[in-house]
Amino acid sequence: MVYTPGVHKKPYNKSSMIKQIQLEQDSGKSLHDIELKQSLVDLNRAGAPLIEIVFEPDLEDGEEAAALVKELVLIVQRLGVCSGRMEEGALRVDANVSIRREGDPLSTRTEIKNIGSVRGVASAVRYEIDRQQSVLENGGNIINETRMWDAAAKVTVPMRDKEVVQDYRYMPEPNLPPLRVNLTTREDTQDIISVPLISDRIPELPAVSRAKLIENHDLRPEIAIQLVNEPALFDFFNNLMNKKRNPTKVANLLLNDLLTVLNRRKIDVNNCTISVEQLDELTDMVLQKKINLDICRSVLEEIIGNRKSPFAIVDEKGWSLVTDSKEITEQCKRVFDDNPKLVKQYRDGKVKVLRALLGILSKTSDNKLDMSVASKIMEELLRK
RNA sequence: UGGGAGGUCGUCUAACGGUAGGACGGCGGACUCUGGAUCCGCUGGUGGAGGUUCGAGUCCUCCCCUCCCAGCCA
């Protein structure tokens, strides 16, 4: 699923076919420093198992390429294969770029190396597409070459001959015989591995999780993406949805209010100590309009790092939502009496001060009022 | 790239989630007048896209950009 807010209006799905998968041993990572004109080879991972996946040229821009890489990262994380962090070299990407006019065959491709992040994939590919286009428009030719992505300068530069790693020949490894796979049946034979059997055993893939969220809970794709990107929140969500609840509201509670509090405390979501039971009580109160979202965040602050019951806290602190219109009306009148100048401004046509009045109302009543009700009441009172 | 800090009128700087304000500049005017002085008025802004909310500069996600530190010597 491809979605970069600010670039794409809506998420969309895109597929790229796998052309080939190679099992290898890691040879080492090369590090290039352009300013110092030297390249180093990091052999720390030499000999580590490595899978190389080659995709068909199905993707059309840098964002799609980055989305594919992001998806791979999510998959290897979900499967527990590795951290998927590109800067650790746990996952590495080279991008091949070629362009063509509609209907024409693909032009010569270039290969981009030294891409160090998911966003780097998007930037590097975008740059290379633009570069090739401008070369061709100026009557030049694209040569088949390997270029390096310079993340700081945001350009690709040709690798000098010396820099091109020459040891990239495949030495057949006798302990790694060709892997024959069977894509259709659940039957392993001596030489042929059944892919469906493996699919049965591995955790649900991110794409499936998203599809389920969208279909079973009617969530918007943007929300599904966010939930699946944060495993801890995804788990919370699934647990909370064991009761029948409004899925979007539950997701928003997690993605907005929980994250607000965790960010403020600089706590990583995956180290979140709040229990499902606590969230369960809290969610009930929010959805049943027993408390508003301001109070919800206060409760979150209270229960972080302990086992306190949200019910008990709200009870103890008297934080229950006030929805009674008589009481709200009283409070509004009190605010009017205390702020005659603002009221006059409003009646003189400066409607914006309604916000100021609402702010005062909210603050001077301990944030307990149901402000959606209060704003209606106050506006009516002012019009009289 | 990683870690840290940032992004509000042209510039600098405010706004517990509640009327985006001030200063400088610029423009216009006044002061009976060529003043590089003073006063008044006007101008003009929340980096981008989504989202949460009765209400977002402020909260959430992603993106973009800037600055600092680190990457070399091992």
Produce a short descriptive summary:
With 384 residues, the chain is α/β, with parallel strands linked by helices. It has helices at 62-79, 118-137, 195-201, 206-217, 221-229, 231-240, 247-264, 276-287, 293-303, 310-317, 325-338, 340-347, 353-363, 371-383, and strands at 18-25, 29-33, 38-42, 49-55, 93-97, 110-115, 146-150, 155-158, 180-182, 192-194. 45% of the residues lie in helices and 13% in strands.
Regarding quaternary structure, how should these chains be classified? single chain
SSE pattern = EEEEHEEHEEEEHHHHHHHHHHHH
Q: What does the largest sheet look like?
A: 4 strands, mixed
Question: Could you give the distance between the termini?
Answer: 53 Å
- What spatial order of strands do you see in the largest sheet? 5-6-7-8
Q: What is the tally of helical segments?
A: 14
CA-based gyration radius: 29 Å
Strand content: 5-15%
- Share of residues in helices: 40-55%
> What low-confidence regions span 5 or more consecutive residues with pLDDT below 50?
none
**Overall 3D geometry?**
elongated
Overall mean confidence score, pLDDT: 89
Describe the protein's architecture and organization.
This protein is α/β, with parallel strands linked by helices. It has helices at residues 62-79, 118-137, 195-201, 206-217, 221-229, 231-240, 247-264, 276-287, 293-303, 310-317, 325-338, 340-347, 353-363, 371-383; strands at 18-25, 29-33, 38-42, 49-55, 93-97, 110-115, 146-150, 155-158, 180-182, 192-194. Strand 7 (146-150) and strand 8 (155-158) form a beta hairpin. Helix 1 (62-79) runs antiparallel to helix 2 (118-137). The longest helix has 20 residues, at 118-137. It is elongated and about 85 Å long. The protein binds one RNA strand of 74 nucleotides through residues 3-10, 31, 33, 35-36, 38, 86-87, 116-117, 119-120, 122, 151-152, 220, 222-223, 225-226, 229, 252-253, 255-260, 263-264, 292-294, 297, 342, 345, 350-363, 370-376.
